[in-house]
Design a protein that fits this description.
The complex is a heterotetramer of chains A (484), B (128), C (93) and D (111). Chain A is an all-alpha fold. Chain A has 19 helices and 4 strands. In chain A, β2 and β3 form a beta hairpin. In chain C, 73% of the residues lie in helices and 0% in strands. The chains are: A mainly alpha (484), B mainly alpha (128), C mainly alpha (93), D mainly alpha (111). Chains B and D meet through α1 and α6 of B and α5 of D.
Chain lengths: 484, 128, 93, 111
């Protein structure tokens, strides 16, 4: 039993509580938040793989039916969790760092929400218990609403309320689906449910079991912002502070993969599950990218692009082979980094110009050369240009879909990449290369050093993963082999 | 006694459906939120109903009860435990939604969804 | 505009009706195949810990869920305060 | 000449899409790209039906292509349907929920 595994959740949770309680002491809070944020990526790297049973209740065998039951909540920690939690911790650290240097006076509730979101997502990723995942998913939804409401951008309250109203349709449906699973199998532990399904204790073809898939699937659509929730998800990103949006999109990606992996373990024997995932992923790619092409608010544009990129992850999971799922998860990791980089980079532009409409911007290359070059590389990585990390994962996805006998999906994926590239080139041109409009007043504002630092760190990871993808894909592939 | 359980289960489904209808068709945001909270309550009631055991006893060990008899005849405690958590979750989201409505009502002076939560992307795109 | 709204409302009503029929049918079939599963284990194990099994589930087997529950209450309180203007970012603080 | 007029009309309609405010040529070319992209990708996605039945795939692809091309500009329509108003988002969410659940429950075993 490894004591560090629950600490991954407890440390940000306790930090959040302490910060909200003692936010009056400005300086001390800043130092404390910085130290805790620095710890976050270190803990998962330092701890060993294994299982953790809360309360020490190891699995028991039911003597009557000879079925194994997990009475307590179980956390399982493997390479996949390690890499994602470490990346999430790093991103949280960078975002908290940017936030701490941007504002003189810290806002206790805002820091609380940032740490709480990280804790909730970590718990969702670690947990092996579907109801526990639901609890932390709700915490995450509230934290997201709080991060949006705190930003005090125009119309952020309206967007937050819309998100909550849609969420209170989406998440009870998921709860209802969990209820169906509980009724059918008598357990909320994913390992138990999967064992019950695969051993034939539950009839996998019965319509009731299928209905639970439908309800949980709908909840997953809400969690991950796939259509029909793509408009609200991109709206949420555009109404948060840019560094907050960088963290919000990573929450979305991680909650998406953690729920879909649980669904995959339970429902992988049903062909309709894969059909549904692929269908909604393709829809997300088409709608996300085509709407991103027509946006003039660049925050909204990246929001739609982020949703469109989620489609690639779903595609990998939906194809269902070991190679494809590895590609999808690798793409998820890349997307967390690249989209965060884009959000932080464009956030630097917002910071310097107080303007979000691309039509009013122009000629920024001369003023912010560092930011523009890093943004260019990030955009190329998102579009999938070698040797950056986006290229490796998209190449894997294209190969995987070819191997599965779906050349149409490969062509579609390549087309979406090209359209992503077009979106990016268009925005880059209007913001950086086009002549500066006369009305645009550039106050001699510098881009904060911390933003440049954060972008540099993320960029190094992008290039590193692009050149040596094996350091991640080998481990992920092992993990996927374990759940197949 | 199985009819009791079926009746409770049907009630929960009815709550979910009523909630969905009110989410689409009611314009007043407060009423809409009340309707939406029906969905949450329907899901909770559903899970409570799963824990029902025909002819069972309350899952509390009374003094003098035989433990093995109790284990086979008590109602299922797990769904009740889960529902207590999810009730609190529903209440919290309800509180946050109503707080947002309060602030927005002060700003707009109306509770109509079609005014308060209309499309905002056009207005913010090019404001001078 | 109103004609599209009528069509929309009609479509939504019909789809919700179909959904409700599906849900009722599923629940009718479900009620005969409810499985106690781990609840029976709880019933057997729990009596050694405390007499009230629901509290045993909440505070022992699934205590971590209860922690999440209390955290969510706190979060809701803080977010409500945030919405009313305590701790906003930027100039509007 | 007719096609030229039609495309000209399409560009004029894009102008409405970006009002208020000026329409730059980057925006219009972006919209035209989106237009072509959406037609091609939807047709391509319809080709996936060939795994169900080749005849159906051919038929659906042809009909979809004709419908989409005769209905340009599509992007303004798509954008209006996916705007930020709560009514539309709720409508699509509930419709999707009903379609998923109904489809899975009554026909999930057919796939």
């Amino acid at each position: 039993m490894n004591e560090l595994i629950p600490l991954m959740v407890i440390v940000p949770l306790m930090a959040a509580l302490l910060i909200s309680a003692f936010s009056k002491f400005n300086k001390a809070t800043k130092v404390f938040a910085f130290v805790v944020a620095l710890c976050l990526p270190v803990i998962p790297i330092a701890s060993h793989y294994g299982l953790h049973y809360f309360g020490g209740y190891a699995p028991v065998m039911d003597n009557v039916t000879n079925v194994m039951y997990h009475p307590a909540i179980t956390y399982s920690f493997t390479f996949l969790q390690q890499i994602f939690i470490a990346m999430l911790g790093l991103l949280t650290f960078l975002v908290v760092f940017i936030y701490l240097t941007k504002y003189k006076k810290v806002s206790g509730p805002y820091l609380f929400l940032l740490f709480l979101g990280t804790a909730a997502v970590t718990a969702m990723l670690l947990t092996d218990d579907i109801f526990h995942m639901f609890v932390f998913f709700e915490i995450l939804a509230l934290a997201q609403v709080g991060i949006v409401a705190a930003s005090s951008i125009d119309y952020s309250y309206e967007m937050a309320l819309k998100y909550m109203v849609l969420g209170s349709i989406g998440s009870p449906m998921m709860l209802l689906g969990i209820g169906f699973l509980l009724a059918l199998t008598g357990s909320v532990n994913v390992t138990d449910i999967a064992a019950a399904v695969h051993n034939g204790l539950v009839d996998a073809t019965s319509p009731v079991f299928l209905l639970s898939l439908g309800l949980i699937f709908f909840g997953w659509l809400y969690a991950s912002g796939l259509p029909p929730f793509h408009t609200i998800k991109s709206g949420i990103y555009s109404k948060a502070e840019p560094h907050g949006a960088a963290l919000l999109q990573s929450f979305t990606v991680v909650s998406m993969i953690s729920i879909v992996l649980i669904m995959f373990r339970i429902y992988s024997s049903l062909p309709i599950f894969e059909v549904l995932v692929v269908f909604f992923s393709i829809l997300a790619m088409i709608l996300g990218v085509s709407l991103a092409l027509t946006q003039t608010d660049f925050r909204r544009m990246i929001g739609f692009l982020a949703v469109g990129e989620l489609g690639f992850i779903g595609l990998g999971i939906g194809l269902g082979t070991q190679y494809a799922i590895t590609a999808g998860l690798f793409q998820a990791l890349n997307e967390i980094i690249i989209t965060a980089l884009l959000f932080i980079g464009f956030g630097a532009i917002v910071n310097a110009t107080d303007e979000v409409d691309t039509r009013k911007l122009g000629g920024l290359l001369a003023y912010h050369p560092k930011v523009s070059i890093m943004l260019l590389i990030a955009g190329l990585a998102m579009a999938g240009v070698p040797p950056l990390s986006g290229f490796q994962s998209k190449l894997m996805l294209v190969q995987a879909s070819l191997n599965c006998g779906f050349p149409e999906i490969s062509i579609l994926a390549i087309m979406v990449s090209i359209a992503t590239f077009v979106v990016f080139v268009k925005t880059y041109y209007t913001m950086f290369l086009k002549p500066k409009p006369n009305e645009l007043e550039l106050e001699k504002k510098e881009v904060p050093r911390t933003m440049i630092f954060a972008m540099g760190v993320l960029l190094i990871i992008v290039i590193l993963l692009g050149v040596f993808p094996d350091i991640v894909t080998a481990g992920i592939s092992n993990f996927v082999g374990g759940i197949l | 006694m199985a009819q009791t359980q079926l009746a409770i289960l049907f009630t929960s489904a009815a709550l979910v459906v009523i909630g969905l209808y009110s989410a689409i068709f009611i314009d007043n945001i407060i009423k809409k939120i009340i309707g939406i909270s029906f969905i949450e309550e329907g899901a909770n009631l559903f899970i409570v109903a799963i824990g029902y055991k025909p002819g069972g006893v309350v899952p509390i060990l009374m003094p003098g009860m035989d433990t093995s008899w109790f284990a086979t005849n008590a109602a299922y405690p797990l769904p009740f435990g889960l529902v207590l958590t999810s009730i609190v979750i529903g209440a919290s989201t309800l509180a946050v939604m109503l707080a947002l409505v309060m602030v927005l009502y002060r700003r707009y002076g109306t509770l109509s969804t079609s005014v308060m939560l209309a499309d905002t992307s056009k207005q913010e795109e090019y404001d001078e | 505009m109103s004609s599209t709204n009528t069509i929309r409302n009609l479509l939504a009503a019909v789809m919700t009706a179909i959904f409700s029929v599906t849900l009722f049918d599923a629940i009718f079939h479900l009620s005969s195949i409810i499985n106690p599963g781990v609840s029976n284990i709880y019933n057997a194990l729990g009596t050694q810990i405390a007499p009230n099994l629901v509290t045993v589930v909440i505070f022992d087997f699934r205590a971590y869920d209860t922690l999440g529950e209390s955290i969510i209450l706190l979060t809701a309180g803080l977010v409500v305060l945030l919405i009313f203007g305590r701790g906003l970012l930027g100039d509007k603080q | 000449m007719k096609l030229y007029d039609q495309i000209f009309n399409v560009v004029k309609q894009f102008k409405k899409l970006f009002s208020p405010g000026p329409v730059t040529n980057a925006d219009v070319s972006g919209s035209i790209t989106a237009e072509i992209f959406i037609i091609v990708s939807l047709v391509l996605a319809a080709l996936l039906l060939r795994h169900v039945s080749v005849l159906l795939a051919g038929l659906v692809t042809l009909i979809l292509a004709v419908v989409l091309i005769s209905n340009i500009p599509l992007i303004p329509k798509f954008k209006i349907e996916q705007e930020d108003s709560l009514e539309k988002m709720l409508f699509y969410a509930v419709i999707t929920l009903a379609i998923i659940v109904t489809f899975i429950y009554w026909g999930g075993n057919l796939v």
